[in-house]
Amino acid sequence: MWKKALALACLLTACQGSQNTSSIKADESQVETIYGYTLKTKTIDFVVMSTGCTSAQNFILIETKSIPAQWILRRTKPDYCKATPHLVTVTLSKAALEV
Fold first, then answer.
1. How far apart are CA 90 and CA 47, in angstroms?
2. Could you tell me where the DSSP H helices lie in the chain?
3. In this structure, how many other beta carbons lie within 10 angstroms of the beta carbon of residue 77?
4. Which pairs from 14-23 meet CB under 8 Å and 24+ separation?
5. Is pLDDT at 6 greater than 60 in this prediction?
6. For residues 64 and 70, is the Cβ–Cβ distance under 8 A?
7. Cβ atoms of residues 34 and 47 within 8 Å
8. How many helices (H) and strands (E) does the chain have?
9. Where do the structural domains in the chain lie, given as residue ranges?
10. pLDDT tens-place string over residues 44-89
11. Which pTM does this prediction carry?
């Protein structure tokens, strides 16, 4: 399953900034922009925007039904805090990636 994470990383790199989201079925307002990522042995770190109330528990990875497979990072809980927007790193475990 860790190969899926590597495939995700490759897709993120290849599609960064892409406007073609026709195969993504999640609500656009909850699709999170990924500003960076780091693959580790048991986790993957995602860099996302926060206004003060962002944690890893606020995200899920969704595999689309397209070919080739695509993955999106979806925010499940909005960040309503009012701090100045800044980048933060959230870490998802290897188990979270095995969907």
1. 6
2. 2-15, 94-97
3. 12
4. 15/70, 23/64, 23/65, 23/66, 23/70
5. no
6. yes
7. yes
8. 2, 5
9. 2-15+28-97
10. 899 999 999 999 999 988 888 888 878 889 999 999 999 999 999 9
11. 0.67
